[in-house]
From TrEMBL:
Protein name per its UniProtKB record: UFSP1/2/DUB catalytic domain-containing protein
InterPro entries listed in its UniProt record: UFSP1/2_DUB_cat (IPR012462)
Record's keyword terms, sorted: Hydrolase
Domain UFSP1/2/DUB catalytic as annotated: residue spans: 102-214, 295-364
GO molecular function annotations of the record: ubiquitin-like protein peptidase activity
Segments forming a coiled coil: none
Length: 365
C-alpha cells in the first residue's frame, strides 16, 4: 500500500490518508440519503413498500455493525478503589451531624480543553450514567453500545444518538437537530439523553420541575395543564415554546461559558432517571412537578432526589454517616448546563431545619 493511503474500515478500499475521514463518513451519509430518498428502481417490485422496509432495516443493521467496529473508548481518570469510595470516605470524615446517600459506582468524565469545553457537558453526563449502568447492571451492559463492554467517546455517542433517531426515538428532537449531530458542537440535553438510553431498551424517564409561570416551556403534551401531582404521558411530541433555542428544549441560551454549556439561561431544572429493568418497549414517559414559587420548587427537587436514592434498594454499610444506594445516578439539567447527581446529603442545623446538599459530578471540573 502507498504510504500516503489508508484502508477504509468499512469497505476496505485504499484511499488517500487525507480523505479517509470524509470517505468513512460518506458510508453513513449515503445510507441516510438512501433512507430518506428511495431510488426509483425500488418501485418496480410487487409489494415494494415491504422490500424497502427490509432494506431500511438491513441498512440500519449495517450502520450499527460498522459503528460497533468503529467506536472508540471514552477517556477518563481512573481512581483507585473507585471515585464513590473516595467520596464516601470524605463524607464519613465530616464531624457534623449529617447523613448522606451515595450511588455505588460512577466514573467521572471531564470536558477537555480543545475538545468539548463549552458544549460537551451533555455527552459527558451520558458517559457517567453509562459507566454506572455498564458496571452495575449486567442486563443493561448486554444491550448497550453493541456489547462493546466500554463507554464510547463523544463522536461515537453522537452516532448512537443518530441511530436512535432513525429508529424513531424522539422524532421531534431529531427534527430540531435536522437528524444530524455527528462531528458537531451542538448542545444536547435531557431529552437527547433519554432518547439514547431508551434506544437500548432502558426505562429512562424525564422529570421536570418548575413554577406555574413556566407552564408553556415545559409541558410535554399539548393541551395538558399544570397540577401539583406529576403528569405522565406516553406521547413523544413536544410543545414548541416561545423564546427557546431548539435542541435542548428550554434549557439553553446562546451565551457560552468556559465552565458550562450555557451561562445565561434561566429555566426550570429537569432530571433523567433510569428504571430498574430493561424494557424493549420503553414508553418514554415524562413527569411534571409544578410549583408556585421558586423556593418551593427547590424543596420539591430536594425531596424528589432524597426519596429516589433512599428507596427500598438502599443498602446500609457499617458507616456512621453514609449509606450506599443501588440507584442509578441522575442526569441533572438546569440553566443551560448539566451535571450528574450521584447522591444527596442532609445536615441537621441548630434551627432544626434540615439543609440538603446535592452531591454532583460536574463535567467542567
Amino acid at each position: 500500500m502507498n504510504m500516503d493511503s489508508s484502508t477504509c474500515p468499512f469497505c476496505h478500499l485504499s484511499v488517500p490518508s487525507s480523505e479517509l475521514q470524509w470517505h468513512a463518513n460518506s458510508h453513513f451519509d449515503d445510507d441516510e440519503a438512501n433512507y430518506h430518498s428511495p431510488s426509483a428502481s425500488d418501485l418496480h417490485f410487487d409489494g415494494g413498500g415491504e422490500v424497502r422496509g427490509r432494506d431500511v432495516v438491513s441498512k440500519m443493521d449495517e450502520n450499527i455493525s460498522c459503528l460497533v467496529d468503529w467506536q472508540r473508548r471514552g477517556e477518563f481518570h481512573k481512581v483507585e478503589r473507585g471515585l464513590m469510595a473516595l467520596l464516601r470516605d470524605c463524607l464519613e470524615s465530616e464531624a457534623e451531624n449529617s447523613r448522606s446517600i451515595l450511588t455505588c459506582y460512577v466514573d467521572h468524565f471531564q470536558s477537555l480543553e480543545f475538545q468539548d469545553v463549552g458544549w460537551g457537558c451533555g455527552w459527558r453526563n451520558i458517559q457517567m450514567l453509562s459507566s454506572h449502568l455498564m458496571t452495575q447492571r449486567p442486563e443493561a451492559k448486554e444491550t448497550m453500545f453493541g456489547l462493546s463492554g466500554f463507554v464510547p467517546d463523544i463522536p461515537s455517542l453522537q452516532r448512537w444518538l443518530e441511530i436512535a433517531w432513525e429508529r424513531g426515538f424522539d422524532a421531534a428532537g431529531a427534527d430540531q437537530f435536522n437528524h444530524a449531530v455527528y462531528g458537531s458542537k451542538k448542545w444536547i440535553g435531557a431529552t437527547e439523553c433519554a432518547a439514547l438510553l431508551r434506544s437500548f431498551g432502558l426505562r429512562a424517564r424525564v422529570v421536570d420541575f418548575g413554577p406555574k409561570e413556566s407552564e408553556k416551556l415545559y409541558l410535554s403534551v399539548p393541551g395538558s395543564s399544570v397540577v401539583k401531582e406529576p403528569v405522565k404521558s406516553n406521547d413523544g411530541r413536544k410543545r414548541k415554546a416561545p423564546n427557546t433555542y431548539g435542541p435542548m428544549d428550554r434549557y439553553v441560551s446562546r451565551g457560552v461559558a468556559q465552565t458550562s454549556c450555557s451561562q445565561d439561561a434561566k429555566s426550570c431544572p429537569s432530571l433523567v432517571r433510569i428504571g430498574d429493568t430493561v424494557d424493549k418497549e420503553s414508553s418514554g414517559n415524562r413527569e411534571l412537578y409544578s410549583t408556585e414559587k421558586l423556593n418551593e420548587g427547590h424543596q420539591v427537587l430536594m425531596d424528589f432526589v432524597w426519596n429516589y436514592f433512599s428507596h427500598k434498594n438502599t443498602v446500609q454499610f457499617d458507616h456512621k454517616h453514609v449509606h450506599i444506594s443501588e440507584k442509578t445516578p441522575l442526569y441533572f439539567q438546569h440553566d443551560g448546563h448539566s451535571r450528574t447527581i450521584v447522591g444527596i446529603q442532609v445536615k441537621h442545623q441548630r434551627s432544626g431545619i434540615p439543609q440538603y446538599n446535592l452531591l454532583v459530578l460536574d463535567p467542567s471540573h
